[in-house]
Every structure is written in C-alpha cells, then in structure tokens.
Amino acid sequence: xxxxxxxxxxxxxxxxxxxxxxxxxxxxxxxxxxxxxxxxxxxxxxxxxxxxxxxxxxxxxxxxxxxxxxxxxxxxxxxxxxxxxxxxxxxxxxxxxxxxxxxxxxxxxxxxxxxxxxxxxxxxxxxxxxxxxxxxxxxxxxxxxxxxxxxxxxxxxxxxxxxxxxxxxxxxxxxxxxxxxxxxxxxxxxxxxxxxxxxxxxxxxxxxxxxxxxxxxxxxxxxxxxxxxxxxxxxxxxxxxxxxxxxxxxxxxxxxxxxxxxxxxxxxxxxxxxxxxxxxxxxxxxxxxxxxxxxxxxxxxxxxxxxxxxxxx
Length: 313
Fold this sequence. Notes:
Helices cover 29% and strands 23% of the residues. By secondary structure, it is α+β, with helices and mostly antiparallel strands.
C-alpha cells in the first residue's frame, strides 16, 4: 500500500466516481478498523492511511485541488503555503480544514452503526470509539475420514482443534459419504455475550474391501465352490452386524443374487437389505478327479451357456 497516492491506497483509479471511492473505503474500513483488530499495529497504521486518503478524495473540492496539483496527499498547499495559512484561518466555510481522516467518518458509522458510537472531543472534532456489543462467533469447518463400518453402524470419534483441544464427535449410524455434521457451539467464541459459532464436519467414508453401499442396502460378492453351486449348500455370509447362515439353492450360477432381509443399513424408516452376489470359484490347481468328472459331464451335456449371447448378436 503506497503512503503517497490516495488513489492507490484506496485501490481505485483516478477516474473513479465518488460512490466508487466511498465503497472502496467502506470495504477497507471493515477489515482494518482498530476496534476489530485490537493490538494489531500494522492494521492500525493501514487504517490511518485509508482514513487520510478518504478524507482527501471523499471531499470533491479537496479531490479537485489534489488532482490539479494545488495540494499534496496530506492536504497541504503545494505552492501558496503562506497564503493558504492565512486563507484557511479566515475561510468561513472551512474548505481547507483537516479532519485528520475523520471528517467524513459518518460513512463508516452507517456501516458499523451497531458496533461503534460517535462522540466529540474538546476540540469538537468527531471521534469514534468502540461500545460494548454482542456478536455470534464464527463457524469452523473440518473434513474427516471415517471407516465404512463406523459410518454404517455409528461410532464416537475425536477431532483435534488448532489450539490442541479435542471435540468429541458422535457419528450417527447410516452416515453417508459427503454428509456434514453440525456441532452446535463448537466454533469460534462469541464477542461479548454473543454465543459461540458452530463447527461443521464434512465426512468422507472410506471404501470397504467387502461391502458396497446403495442407499440403505449393502451388497457383497460371495465366492462359492463348484459343488456348492451345483448341489446347494449352507454357507456363512459376513454382514455388517456379524456373520449369518444362508442356504444356497441347487444349480446357482455366478452372478446369482440372493437377499438377506434387514441386514443392510438401519434407518428410522426401517433397515435396508444385504444382497449376496455369488461367484463360482475353481481351485487354482485342477486335480485329475475333477478333470475326469468334467470330461464325463461334457460328453453327454447339451448345455450351452452362450446360446442367448449368440441370439442377440
């Protein structure tokens, strides 16, 4: 930020309208006012700069004289210094008096009327000071990864805040990927008697090696042997709530889908289901007995698994 050019200080061009200058000043004042940045000397100095710049450019008469080179950025006469002193002392309209950055501060009070009050010092010059105010604290946002089963069944976890404190987080059963949880009052502290803000935690659910989710339903691929598929069998199937026994029908093929009712994600409207998709798996090494069995079967079997495929070519 240049200390010399008031246009540069306010971030506006020399062709800016008075309204644009006012808007630029208000925007900067909201960020830099000392009462909103207590103890920050750098921002206090920047605030004084923008106040002085606006004191000059916010007054159309002063702005014209500055643009014409009659006064400098501090409002002082460039060429007629002695005459200016004499004229300023006798000017009933006070066209050359300086408010040291506060003469047009009523614009700022319009913006922060609920934060600041105006008073006068002994010289009668407008002065601004902070009055007590209450304001809600800011919200904080976090991202968090959770395991598939924690999201499905519910769990309790902790989040570490930047200041080292811990927030206990309850993960509700059935939490979906990308869902945001709100922790009321766990955000930034409020001002005065204002309440604290909230903390918002957006959750990413890790994938699971066995389960996939579709709404409140769960799906799993279950490997079965050749003989289990042909003869039917009773097998153990993992679910998110523990293993259950399931009966395979005779002649089940790969891709056959069976349903375990109520073994999906619990919800207020009832639990989803778990679907079991069968996959026939042969041993890596085929022994002579299995090979002989397959040959005997193929000699009299008329089964063609690709008949439907050929009909649709």
